[in-house]
Specification:
The chain is mainly beta. The chain contains 1 helix and 18 strands. The protein folds into 2 domains: 130 residues, ntegrin, alpha v. Chain A, domain 3 (Immunoglobulin-like), CATH 2.60.40; 119 residues, Immunoglobulin-like (Sandwich), CATH 2.60.40.1510. It is flat, with a radius of gyration of 25 Å.
């Protein structure tokens, strides 16, 4: 009889404990189901001391519900002199317009609401420290969070070089892009050296999943997931341009991003990389943008 009462008491205590655990769990935010994605790239890479580099960040909502009060946070990394005014759409609010020489100081950009399948992309310039050493890595880290407690982290890095003679930039014809349409990549390249010729120069572009080449120019050939152009020798000061048109798979869904990398290499030369992010969307928003370039006056 005493044993029976003991078992009943244990079962009662177990049920009460289980109920308390379930009650507490109901109030905890589910960070694992955040379904926010952060992608970051940086160009040029490698970068030279004293040069301006550009961080491109894309925050995507891959869930079927809106994320409210989304915030992007980063800090001034070792090897950089600061963040400068973000090149964003007007609805992005920065906590400060610039940071200078304050390693570790934080920068916050308010992205507001991100609807299901939508993404927001912005460029953030930073300067490479003039005393950065050859071979150093500038680590760019960021965190994205929303008002409900969802958190996602991202990172990329820039290698420092004292002699980047190969110059490369990569651009796309549309961002975002609609599935089932076409997209053109443009690669601008050059050799800034003055004392030598680059032998065996090659330009290459890695095709992201979900695109198919439809037009290659100037002798480009497809090699698996890569498109390559053999440039031969590059003389000092020589520049050029190549382009590639691709069709975007109609099965791609909104919220996906095309991550495309280009490389310029040569015999006995350090390879230069350029990367671009292209968001996939169901429709392209109609926007009116105004931009101006301003060079501040300097006192002699």
């Amino acid at each position: 009889m005493i044993e029976l009462v003991s078992h009943r008491a244990n079962r009662s205590a177990y049920s009460a404990l289980l109920g308390l655990i379930l009650f507490m769990a109901m109030g905890l935010p589910s960070v694992a189901q955040a379904e926010l994605r952060l992608q970051m790239t940086a160009s040029p890479n490698p970068a030279q001391p004293g040069e301006m580099a550009m961080l491109t960040a894309t925050v995507t909502n891959t869930s079927d519900f809106s994320h409210e009060d989304v915030v992007f946070e980063t800090h001034v990394p070792e090897g950089a002199v600061g963040w400068y005014r973000a090149l964003t759409t007007p609805d992005f609010a920065m906590s400060r317009q610039s940071y200078t020489d304050n390693i570790g100081e934080r920068l916050t950009i308010s992205l507001g609401r991100i609807n299901p399948g939508a993404s927001k992309t912005f460029d953030l310039p930073t300067g490479i420290a003039s005393d950065a050493a050859n071979g150093d890595l500038v680590l760019l880290e960021a965190t994205v969070r929303d008002g409900a407690g969802a958190i996602v982290n991202g990172r990329t890095e820039i290698q420092v070089t004292n002699d980047r003679a190969l110059e490369l930039s990569l651009s796309d014809s549309a961002d975002p892009i609609i599935p089932g349409t076409e997209l053109t990549y443009t690669l601008d390249f050059g050799f800034s050296g003055s004392q030598r010729v680059v032998e065996g120069a090659e330009l290459a572009l890695h095709l992201p999943t979900g695109v198919t080449p439809t037009q290659l120019d100037a002798g480009g050939t497809q090699d698996g997931d890569w498109v390559r152009w053999s440039l031969g020798p590059l003389a000092p000061g020589e520049v050029g341009r190549r382009s590639l048109r691709v069709s975007v798979d109609s099965s791609l869904v909104a919220g996906h991003s095309l991550i495309t990398e280009a490389r310029l290499s040569g015999i006995a030369e350090e390879t230069t990389h350029a990367t671009i992010l292209t968001a996939v969307a169901d429709s392209v928003p109609i926007t009116l943008e105004s931009a101006s370039l301003h060079t501040p006056a300097r006192t002699p």
